[in-house]
Amino acid sequence: VQLVESGGGSVQPGGSLRLSCAASGANLGGYSIGWFRGTPEKEDREGVDCISSTYGDGSTYYDPSVKGRFSISRDNVKNTVYLRMNHLHPADPGRYYCATGGCQATLAMDYWGRGTLVTVTS
Fold this sequence. Notes:
Elements (H helix, E strand, L loop, with lengths): L1 E5 L2 E3 L5 E8 L8 E6 L10 E6 L5 E3 L7 E6 L4 E6 L8 E7 L15 E5 L2
Parallel strand pairs: 2-10
Antiparallel strand pairs: 1-3, 3-8, 4-5, 4-9, 5-6, 7-8, 9-10
């Protein structure tokens, strides 16, 4: 399974982005998918924070810091999971990764993308 994130960029505070996590090699409909935030300085999945997740039973999770501003969704036809990010503020920047396994994803057992960079600058 290969996951590829896209949609990152630089926005002003209050701006919006939509991140995409496109999969190949498997149907994402059967997977829980999590979005994680890590350091923006380099590609490093150690110690990342789970921001949001969509699970196979249709349930979702949001970190309290993004609840009400971010929205996770999936398009099973396009085999893609999205993270809509509204009202971005200076605490949101980072490299965002998607991974199978939801928020319980591990580096050893799950598939991860390489991340997409989000910056918020005024």
